[in-house]
Amino acid sequence: MRRTIRKAVKIGAVMAVLAVLFWALPLWAVAVPVLVYLLFGIIDVARNDMGGVAPVLKRYFFGNGLLTWALSPFNLLMDLLSKRTGGILRVSDLPADMQEEIEIMLAAVRREKDGIVARIEARNTPSERVMLMYKW
Predict the structure, then answer these.
(1) Distance in angstroms (rounded) separating the CA atoms of residues 22 and 29
(2) What is the pTM of this model?
(3) What's the pLDDT score for residue 70?
(4) What is the DSSP string of 113-136?
């Protein structure tokens, strides 16, 4: 229930800001940036294959991806400026020293797996997401 309320508050805040902008500024001064952001967001979503279209669009524009949508022009610019990798990299594609470091980290995680899982379960509720960080 709390997530639903938080999402509703976020969407309401965005709508309120847009309503104030539409009231205070001329139509073209608001419509052009909104259309540009909408176009960038559609391009950003279209270039990723994520399965079904409707749930992705809903989450991207109104849910978890709201910040992603706001940063979509920057994201697209960085994609244009970055070097192409030619697909998904495998560990074997990396230099030997990086492969070794990854193997050391994975060995440590495998060795401490039970302790890591216990710590995560002790701190989290089932609905929360978890991100593990590796510190060199």
Answers:
(1) 9
(2) 0.43
(3) 76
(4) HHHHHHHHHHH--TT---------
